[in-house]
Design goal:
By secondary structure, the protein is α+β, with helices and mostly antiparallel strands. It is built from 7 helices and 18 strands. It folds into 3 domains: about 170 residues, Immunoglobulin-like; about 160 residues, Rossmann fold (3-Layer(aba) Sandwich), CATH 3.40.50; about 45 residues, no CATH class. It starts with a strand and ends in a 7-residue tail after the last helix.
Length: about 400
C-alpha cells in the first residue's frame, strides 16, 4: 500500500497566494495579514488531514467481473471501505493503474482507462462502485493495481492510495447473429433433429413396452397388449435428440506464413476466423444445437458436443484463450463420421479439403458477411472482402 499527496493547479495557485501573503506579513507585520496568512495555512492543513485521514487504511477489492466481449461494455465492480472510525469518505475516484511492464495481457492493451466514483461512505461502511471498460480485442485481460484518490473538501491537496491486487478475466471474441437458415444449411436438414436419443418420453420413435404407472397418459396405453396378470402396459418412446455440430478452426499455419493477398493483415484474418466460429457456436446453441469445438494446430483440448448456456460459455472461453503466438502443430485431427455430427471447418487463408470428411463444410472469414443476419453490423470490423477471399481460395462455403 502506497500513500502519496498531489498538488493540482488550483492547489498550486492557492499555495502561491499563501506564500505571497506570508512574505507580506513578514516584511510589514500587520494583524490582518497575519490572521489571513494563518487562515490560509490552516485551510491547507485541514485539507490534508481530511483527505488523508479518510483514505488512511482504506480497503479496496475487485468483485469478480463477468467475462467481457469485444466492443461490448464490461463492468468491473469494486467494494470500498474507509479505514477511519470518525472521518467518512467523500468524492473518491477509483481507477486501475497500468503495470508499467511490457505485458501483452495488461488491461491497457485491451481497453481505454475508466474510473469508478464514490460520492460518500460513512465510517466503517462498505460501498460499491463500478467502472465500464470496452475491450478492443479478445484474450486474457489482467488487472494489477488499484488507486483511490480524493481531494475533498477544497480540491487543493489530493491524496492517493495505491494497492497491489491482481485479477485476470477473459475477453470473449466478437460475435454477430447468424441467420437461422444458414445454420439449417450447415446441419444439412434443419434444426429439428432427426435422431433418437438415450432418453425416453411421450413422443418420438418406438422404444419398447413397460408396465403402467400412476400418472401415465391414457393415450400411451397399449390396449391390445396386456401383462399375464391382466394389468395394462404402456408404449415407451425415444425422445428425439438435438442435432449436432462440430466446429473446427484451422490454425495449423503460422501467422507469418498465411497465403493472403499483399497488404492483408494476417493477424486480423485469424481473429476474424475465431469470431466466425464463436458466432456460429452462439447462434447454434441458442437454437438448441449441440456444438463441439476442435482447434487444429493449437495444443488445446477438444470440447465435446453439448448444449446450453454453460457449455456456450466454455466454448467462448476456449476461443478467447487461443494464443496465436504459440507454436503451431502440424497434421490433421480426428473427425467423426457424417452420421455422428455435421462438421464445419473454418480456414484462415485457403480451403484444405483434407481436414474433415466428404460432407464437411469449408468456410473462410469472408463468408461471415453472407451468413450474418445483419450484414451492416460487420462493416465496422470486417476488413476482408468476399471477392478477395475467393481469389485466394477458389470456391469457399461449398461442401468438400
Amino acid at each position: 500500500m502506497r500513500y502519496r499527496y498531489h498538488l493540482n493547479l488550483a492547489g498550486f495557485l492557492y499555495l502561491a497566494v499563501t506564500l505571497l501573503v506570508g512574505f507580506a506579513a513578514t516584511i510589514r507585520p500587520n494583524n490582518l495579514l497575519v490572521w489571513i496568512f494563518g487562515l490560509l495555512l490552516g485551510l491547507i492543513v485541514l485539507s490534508g488531514i481530511i483527505s488523508g485521514g479518510a483514505l488512511f487504511r482504506i480497503s479496496m477489492r475487485r468483485l469478480d467481473p463477468m467475462n467481457g466481449r469485444v466492443d461490448r461494455p464490461m463492468i468491473v465492480r469494486y467494494a470500498i471501505q474507509g479505514g477511519s472510525r470518525f472521518i467518512p469518505l467523500f468524492d473518491v475516484r477509483i481507477r486501475e493503474i497500468p503495470s508499467g511492464q511490457d505485458d501483452s495481457s495488461d488491461w491497457t492493451t485491451f481497453a481505454a482507462s475508466a474510473s469508478a466514483w464514490v460520492m460518500h461512505a460513512g465510517p466503517g461502511e462498505t460501498v460499491h462502485a463500478e467502472a465500464v471498460f470496452v475491450p478492443r480485442r479478445r484474450g486474457r485481460m489482467k488487472f494489477n493495481r488499484l488507486e483511490a484518490r480524493s481531494s475533498f473538501p477544497f480540491g487543493l491537496i489530493g491524496k492517493s492510495v495505491t494497492i497491489g491486487t491482481e485479477l485476470e478475466t477473459l475477453v470473449f471474441p466478437r460475435t454477430c447473429r447468424i441467420r437461422e437458415r444458414a445454420i439449417e444449411s450447415l446441419l444439412g436438414g434443419g434444426i429439428g433433429g432427426g435422431r433418437s436419443g438415450p432418453g425416453t418420453g411421450s413422443i418420438g420413435e418406438y422404444a419398447g413396452l413397460r408396465e403402467y404407472r400412476p400418472g401415465d397418459s391414457v393415450r400411451s396405453v397399449a390396449w391390445k397388449r396386456v401383462r399375464p396378470d391382466r394389468s395394462p402396459v404402456v408404449i415407451q418412446r425415444a425422445m428425439p435428440s438435438p442435432p449436432r455440430l462440430i466446429l473446427v478452426v484451422d490454425l495449423r499455419r503460422p501467422t507469418a506464413q498465411l497465403r493472403l493477398l499483399a497488404g492483408a493483415d494476417h493477424r486480423e484474418r485469424e481473429e476474424e476466423a475465431i469470431s466466425f466460429a464463436a458466432s456460429i457456436a452462439e447462434t447454434s446453441i441458442n437454437l438448441g444445437v449441440e456444438v463441439g469445438l476442435r482447434l487444429a494446430g493449437i495444443a488445446m483440448p477438444d470440447l465435446p458436443m453439448r448444449g446450453g448456456r454453460r457449455h456456450l460459455g466454455r466454448l467462448q472461453a476456449q476461443l478467447a484463450a487461443v494464443d496465436l503466438d504459440a507454436e503451431r502443430l502440424e497434421g490433421n485431427i480426428a473427425i467423426p463420421p457424417p452420421n455422428v455430427a455435421s462438421v464445419v471447418v473454418i480456414h484462415v487463408d485457403r480451403v484444405d479439403p483434407t481436414l474433415g470428411h466428404h460432407g464437411a463444410w469449408h468456410l473462410l472469414p469472408a463468408n461471415l458477411a453472407e451468413f450474418a443476419q445483419h450484414p451492416a453490423e460487420l462493416r465496422a470490423w470486417t476488413t476482408v472482402s468476399p471477392e478477395a477471399s475467393r481469389h485466394d481460395s477458389g470456391d469457399a462455403g461449398a461442401a468438400a
